[in-house]
Amino acid sequence: MAKKEYIDGILLLPYMKPVQKIQFVKDLIHERVQLSPLGPIVVRLQDVPHFSISDQMLILKKLEQEGFVADVELLKRQTGAAASMWVSSTYESQMKTDAVTDTSDLITLKLGTNTLLINKQTGMIRMNNVESMLNPKSQEFDVISKLATAKNNQVTYASILGESLSKTSKRNLTFVIRNLKEALCILPAKKAKNKDIIKNIKGLGYKLIT
């Protein structure tokens, strides 16, 4: 049996499914967006095994047709190939307070000066410059995903816990929230790199705040 190859935890071709190939390129784009001012961005294409730069450009052209990016242009540099483009939908969300953009596998949420990025496929969560990996099937990931996409970024205990709602499950949920805060470097307080954005609404549930 052939050995599977990975880079940064991502399964490479020929084992990568089409949706994973597209997500690989989208992640490159979103990483650059987080570090760039408004305007066109330049993404350095990754020369990785089984995933040629020409194939990555094909995906960029596909994303251009779908309106995810615009004005894609290949740049050839001494340091390697890159592509310039506009990411209009993402920049638009960055200019609005409490704006959320859900592009299939990626959720981008702007909370005041904080930016929260969630990859629904890989379980990656990133707040500003802090990135962690969660199990996409974990309760922690379920909670942060629901908070990010709910109206006013607020969810009830019933929405989170469903039929298992009880005093015990509510108490156990506090440990889930603590785990989330540790993953986002909100806790422990003495080593915090981000401000607390997860607030408990007494008797109701939780809310993301600015």
Average pLDDT taken over every residue: 80
- The backbone outline, from C-alpha atoms, is elongated
State the CATH superfamily name of the largest domain.
Winged helix-like DNA-binding domain superfamily/Winged helix DNA-binding domain
**How much strand content do the residues show?**
25-35%
Give the proportion of residues in helices. 25-40%
Strand order of the largest sheet: 6-7-8-9-10
Structure explained in plain terms:
The chain is α+β, with helices and mostly antiparallel strands and 210 residues long. It folds into 2 domains: 6-89, Ribosomal Protein S8, Chain: A, domain 1 (2-Layer Sandwich); 96-208, Arc Repressor Mutant, subunit A (Orthogonal Bundle). Helices cover 34% and strands 28% of the residues. The chain has 6 helices and 13 strands. The chain has helices at 18-35, 53-65, 88-94, 139-149, 157-161, 167-183, and strands spanning 6-7, 10-11, 41-44, 70-77, 80-86, 100-103, 106-111, 114-119, 124-127, 130-133, 154-156, 198-201, 205-208. The strands form 4 sheets. A 5-stranded antiparallel β-sheet has the order 6-7-8-9-10, sandwiched between helices. The termini are far apart.
What features would you highlight for this structure?
single chain, alpha+beta, Ribosomal Protein S8, Chain: A, domain 1, Arc Repressor Mutant, subunit A, 3-stranded antiparallel sheet
